[in-house]
Amino acid sequence: MNKKIILLIISILVLSGCGKKQVRKCYLNQDQYMSQEIEFVAENNSNINQLKIRIIFDQELIDANQLSDLTSEEKVNLEESILDSMEISEEEMEGIKFSLDINDTVDFVLDIDVDKADPTLLKTLGLDLTDKDTTLDKVISSLKENGATCE
User: What's the predicted TM-score (pTM) here?
Assistant: First the structure.
């Protein structure tokens, strides 16, 4: 009887390891005025399901003395300008959520559900995740080769 219980517990532990989510983060500093943080989520090092891209712009990059003094209209214009520069329209936003926080820096976040987002749009953003061989480890390795620091 005890052997059956032990086998059952071992089976549950082994099966619960299946489908385990992996979360990895990489950091890129493109210049002194902008940095990026990218968080990847994948199941068992397979294809990436979700990613969050956080881009932080220093206030010296924006033509304003104090970002916190921007009017609501100026913040909307800044948001539209950032989306335009990334070639994202409101209509293409399925599977993509974005937020913009403006204080002493401009903190822009794209939260992407890769399964729902348009693959063509992801390619436009430089995120070609359609290849079945694009595992989390391969993406992390590629980013490291291009100067990213990853954990």
Answer: 0.71
